Amino acid sequence: MLNDADDDFLSRLDLPDAAFRETTEAYLKEPRGRYHGKGRVIAPGSTDEVSRLLRACHEAAVPVVPYSGGTGLVSGQIMESGAKPVILSLERMSEVRALHLTENVLVADAGCILADVQKAAADVDRLFPLSLASEGSARIGGLLGTNAGGVNVLRYGNARAQVLGLEAVLADGTVWNGLGRLRKDNTGYDLKDLLIGSEGTLGIITGASLRLMPRPAVEGAAIFAVHSPQAALDLLALVQGQVAEGVSAFELMHRQGLDFLAESGPEVRTPFAEQPDWMVLIDLGLPAGLSPDEALETLFEAAVEADLAYDGVIARSEAQRQEFWTMRETIPEGNRRTGSISSHDVSIPLSSIPHFIEEGRRRIAKLGDMRINCFGHLGDGNLHYNVFPGPGRKREEYANQQSEVKRTIHDLVHEMEGSISAEHGIGRAKVEDLARYADPTKLSMMRAIKQALDPQGILNPGVILET
Amino acid sequence: MLNDADDDFLSRLDLPDAAFRETTEAYLKEPRGRYHGKGRVIAPGSTDEVSRLLRACHEAAVPVVPYSGGTGLVSGQIMESGAKPVILSLERMSEVRALHLTENVLVADAGCILADVQKAAADVDRLFPLSLASEGSARIGGLLGTNAGGVNVLRYGNARAQVLGLEAVLADGTVWNGLGRLRKDNTGYDLKDLLIGSEGTLGIITGASLRLMPRPAVEGAAIFAVHSPQAALDLLALVQGQVAEGVSAFELMHRQGLDFLAESGPEVRTPFAEQPDWMVLIDLGLPAGLSPDEALETLFEAAVEADLAYDGVIARSEAQRQEFWTMRETIPEGNRRTGSISSHDVSIPLSSIPHFIEEGRRRIAKLGDMRINCFGHLGDGNLHYNVFPGPGRKREEYANQQSEVKRTIHDLVHEMEGSISAEHGIGRAKVEDLARYADPTKLSMMRAIKQALDPQGILNPGVILET
User: Fold this and answer.
1) Are A168 and A205 in contact (CB under 8 A)?
2) Which of B442, B445, B456, B459 to mutate to test the interface with A (most CBs of A within 10 A)?
């Protein structure tokens, strides 16, 4: 049984005044306004203060909800029911602690905003490759806690792949100093990767050693109009055969996303006079001596020759390349303004994607008058598959079909050996789905580990596993 | 308390005759002949047979030692004391289960030999990049269990980075089917990476989904004579600035290793008339349109200009490239024939390596007449730091100094925030060292996880953690 973070509990905390923040509305809601939480915000200013806070929560059996940038989409940062939690924000721990340039390592507080880390890397002519739409507000702790993905996973891996070491505070307040900066370290179990992606249920990440990469010498981008998702996949194989790891991103877009932008805004420039049904945004980063433009021209010729693409625009400047990316990154905002019935962040074995898209459309059509915007990180097999009301209709009209839509898509994903959460995590929103679809042995292993590391269940209760 | 795998226990096992192998000497000793084990070899022919075996061991509290290729150097596969274990070999599960070419995925039994997986990938024009000296006998299960490293980690990551999914049998015989082939899957804790590197103490890996890579279009290699380890590091930065991820391997070699080969064999061709003190072997893999030879020539000029290198040989054919690699890969055999007092597989933060090498030499010199062969995967910060008898003397003469030598080096590594096991693992040989140097919170987390997943402690007892 957990207890409220009430005035009495707060008054007993051995923390400086600065740690007690006003619990404003911003901490209690999430980007799409679908959940509303409760709790009392505490923002420790150091790892030691996090440790003291957790020890007190452990002793009093008070739940702790880690709050990072607040950009998560699965309610991992919002606790609606149960005892009133401490909302633990690391916004006061937002410094780059150290930069080891010759090692290509940056050590950051978990409260660092992603864009600040990207900038610190760029300032010394390096790349921190994690990149996603919310990078201006998402913080490192949450990005690692949820193993965030984004647009560069194809080339550089997800958040997990960027981490060399972690500092974390466990449920009982013990500090794990695992903030090494080694490329190779086989001394026991991989606790780092266990904490990454555990969504704050096994420990609170307070710092991270992050790996920096060399910046590609030359970059370029193009958008090709392709005949079908299968053609997009064949194009991916073609470009990988041509420049291997030089493909930084390979994003699928459907006309529906641009139609939503035209209908509901915000306005973006699109490169085609007439919107193609299917487009791919290809981003290349190549070593000196190679030309992305030439590579993309060669690719386009080969793609037309192989009957994969029928139109294409190659960015002729960095500004135009950024325009392509702005279009891609604005699609989610168009979706939000339109208002989906149900959104899905799924991954599918690459070769099954065309069948998934076709079969998904068939099954959704059976459910009623709905529109689908299917787009995303095709190179990773990760699609954002969102279902919307028919033209002129509102999502409220579909309220009683929401769970059926979700179930239809997730059942299909499961049949096809895919994942019901490719990059967003489980949070509280997908706990039931995980319980339904996950391998039973996996669930029992996770429960055993949770019980071993947080026996009272104070860390982010109700996330990933049912309480 | 654990019980012997005695005749009575074996007679009760519900397994086919083929699973009962003769317990030959090969299963009881290790490459350098330093440990001698005991036990009864069982080789199940399927995941289901592994499951039945483990359930029986769990019920009877009989220990299980997983035996893969038998090439491990830290006695993880050799149990000398305690109850007589089942030696679990997966040699009968050695098939490639499936090849998903458009997905660049290969699914293998854990008993597959690494060279066979490499060949299966090469046969379809792909690369399985894990590569190390023992690849002709090491098997996938052991390579993943120990998170093996090797020569291509700089570019492609260690064994962990090659895995998309696992199938494993837990201590109680339960099968975890995690054999997905997704690039992104954020559905709960990262059990895959927890099992990888756990050295058979948390579960028995029976199958793996492995990621294949495109083969570099063109490859090339060179050996440069450099002035010092610091010059080698500066050269690494130079070549990474030039070709970024195009550096596949960057290996440091010291003259001592070649002197041992000259003294004790086996004979190898070396490219320099007079051996330099320090050399680096650089291997490049580049996309079409670039020339490795040109890149290496440009690099050599820049390296001489910057006073980093003073001699160099660029491989003029694939045969000569292979000769360079044969020289590198034969160094461990020269070491074995010479006979080390103490061998160390360490990693150090990259920028501290020159100081480590200098200080290590100073401290070892104080201990007596010894020679040092320091070589390895410089690009990963991973050095094999081996200490040998002085000229004309034998390792037996140093028997009572062995632990002092080891302690001296490991203390230095620990002072410099390095790892006492970069790629070989802990096994039984380094359990005391881990207990001495590891963060106490890390040790207690590991014990809690071990207790949660293998409460009786039947899986590889005495490995990583003291029993």
Assistant:
1) yes
2) B445
Residue in B175, B448, B464 nearest the CB of A453: B448
CB B440 within 8 A of CB B417: no
Find the closest chain A residue to B246 by CA distance. A287
**Closest alpha carbon within chain B to A176:** B441
Residue count (chain B): 467
Of B102, B157, B190, the CB nearest to A350: B102
Under 8 Å between Cβ of B334 and B261: yes
Q: What is the mean pLDDT of each run of 10 residues along chain A (467 residues)?
A: 97 97 94 89 98 98 97 94 97 98 96 98 96 95 97 94 98 97 97 98 98 93 98 95 90 96 88 93 92 96 97 96 94 93 96 97 97 95 97 94 97 98 96 97 98 98 95
Burial of B183 (0-12, 13-18, 19+ CB in 10 A): buried
How many whole angstroms from its chain centre is CA A213? Answer: 20
Nearest by CB to residue B184, choosing from A153, A190, A451, is A153
Q: How far, in Å, CA of B75 to CA of B81, rounded?
A: 12
8 Å CB contact of B193 and A194? yes
The Cα–Cα gap between A208 and A161 comes to: 12
Q: Write down all domains in chain A, each with its CATH number in brackets.
A: 7-89 (3.30.43.10), 96-214 (3.30.465.10), 217-331 (3.30.70.2190), 339-424 (3.30.70.2740)
Residue of chain B nearest A169, judged by CA positions? B441
Instruction: Give the span between the Cα atoms of A103 and B347, in whole angstroms.
Output: 13
Report whether B190 contacts A194 (CB < 8 A).
yes
The beta-strand segments (E) located in A189-258 are 204-211, 213-214, 218-226, 247-254
- Kindly state the DSSP code that residue B74 receives in the 8-state scheme: S
From the candidates B100, B189, B250, B449, which should be mutated to test the interface with A, based on the most A CB atoms within 10 A? B189
